[in-house]
Design a protein that fits this description.
By secondary structure, this protein is of the alpha/beta class. It folds into 2 domains: 353 residues, 3-Layer(aba) Sandwich (Alkaline Phosphatase, subunit A), CATH 3.40.720.10; 119 residues, no CATH class. The chain is built from 19 helices and 18 strands.
Amino acid sequence: MARSLYGLLALATFSAVAASIHQQPLSRVKEKPNIVFILTDDQDIELGSLDYMPLVHKDLINEGTLFNRHYCTTAICCPARVTLWTGKNAHNTNVTDIFPPYEGHNENYLPVWLQSGGYSTFYTGKLFNTHTTDNYNAPYPAGWTASDFLLDPFTYQYLNATTQRNRDPPVSWEGHYTTDVIAEKAYGFIDDAVALDDSFFLTVATVAPHSNVAAFEIDLDDPLNSPLDSILGVVTPPIPAERHKHLFPEVKIPRTKNFNPDKPSGASWVKALPQLNSTVIEYNDGFYRARLQALQAVDELVDGVVSKLKEHNILDNTYIIYTTDNGYHISQHRLHPGKECGFEEDIHIPLIIRGPGIASGHTSNVVSAHADLSPTVLHLAGLDPRPDFDGSAIPVTASDLLAAKESGERGEHVNVEFWGLGLPEGKYGFSLDDGKVVGFGENNTYKALRIINPAHGHNLYYSVRCTNEHELYNLTSDPGQLHNLYPHPYPHQSSLSYSSERHPHHRYQHHLKRILRLDALLLITKSCAGITCRAPWSVLHPQGNVNSLANALAEDYDSFYADVAETASVRFDKCLLGYIKEAEGPQSVGFDFDQWLIASQRGEL
């Protein structure tokens, strides 16, 4: 639908900003930069979606910096979004799936902090799942000067959205394309923000390229016992705008080495998946094209936001941040469309930032994660970070990067975690046969680490599943994560016991030496909080001389890590659908290097 028609709809629907503001900013801060945060839903980077967004390239990538090593820590929407807005990993927010409760976050998250710092704050689009036409006011989301949220059960219906503005009742947009509706609301909020003459923070959260999901009902008191077909609704490929349905007719999913491989890969339920047949592959190719087509309206939205900022002559004083909640896989590792896995397709995601002091046309290789984004926004706004953040501000300007290098604060690791099932999407992903689920993954709960440090040759993924199966991949030699390097030649021995006499094979010792360090680091990060998330090596080496895997691999520490492994290693006692600490095995190593060294010198070990 043409933007002019949406402009008329907007004039008829949007109330004047003076009558709609319920939370006034505390002070005027015109000298501070504006911040526009554009958040897509389920957008991949590994499968090349950005290659099909020319306006994002023109307006953001060419004029800003692409952060090439950005990750989500939990590959599903609500946990990822809560991490994004709180700066805390999911094991500290206890938001681990798409269902509420989300208690404790409404008064203590990014927009509230920005308002305290003098910003006007605006939001349009998807906030969380189960934010519905029934509970949108119980309570109203805090922290927004003005808002216009998508509401369930219509959030993922591209042609049947329902939104709710400020304290007004919900409004149906049946027959209108959701991304275009959200775009017009975003343009209106920029106008409103400029009228206030304050610095502003605006989030624009589209649902593209998420699957289209028909209306469904969930018993919020007992969501997991709701009928399965009700929970999932009718999940189909995303619906593009009519003007984009003809695009990319010959495009197919990239045929990478991990695309529907001839041999099974991964671990646990993934390793048991059958190879996809030609009918499913053809369907999945169409699903992939629909995702690219649905992103075209987002591409236009980005250009529209930039044009609106230019119109008000504020583009040069505005940061634009573009990212998504999690990635997506389609046919890799024989998987049906979906997310939730620790594979690169699911956790490696786009992040682009444009604004004052940001290098144009630059690609940054700084390792970052969603827990870093709230600290980054506060830094850009000139506000102090919170001491309980699990993340830290990403160095986005040249001066930031220099300061980070001098301080050594930027690490090489990303904490990755998930609880629950791996749920496939699309018509071949699942079925109901006499009430029995067919085609679902088993429990998908896992803890993992992603380590990237090219200077030392490290490009690793290490994971422990709740079944206590381990995975170790070297993504330099195996970018598709097809060859699990975790050693199994001595099953009668403890998986982490270290002895050159018991395990003389050189390759085994090489992998085991890394695993001892990785497992100890994962033992810290899987339960970390605050500074222990930001600097986990300091827990193992409080003397401060180890801040990377390369440092930790020094031979002087072999005995230390062998003793750590004998004392505690990462394991699960149960496979559960959520975060219950008592089911997740040891929570710490029990001693640090200084204590170990003293005991060793005394002959107490």
